[in-house]
Amino acid sequence: MIVAFSVTPLGVGEDVGSYVADAVRVVRESGLPNRTDAMFTSVEGEWDEVMDVVRRAVAAVEARAPRVSLVLKADIRPGVTGALTSKVETVERFLAQEG
Predict the structure, then answer these.
(1) φ, ψ for residue 82 (rounded to 5)?
(2) Higher model confidence: residue 99 or residue 51?
(3) What is the model's pTM?
């Protein structure tokens, strides 16, 4: 499965970069395939391991913030691996054909 999620600390002001970095650090240290962009962090793996990473990422932010918002979207497709990169590669291949 791939989970795209965003963890946002609430009640800490507008500068939330260090809080978000705490969450992303948990994801990167998990060893699971992952990617972070301006809006979400995506992580790929089995249900239990991915959800554990999300839980720990939220906990890392929660340790320093009085309130935390979590937005999560999941693509659950048993037996498929490598989709985190292959989905993007497919789109890039189609874009290259247009040129």
Answers:
(1) 75, 10
(2) 51
(3) 0.90
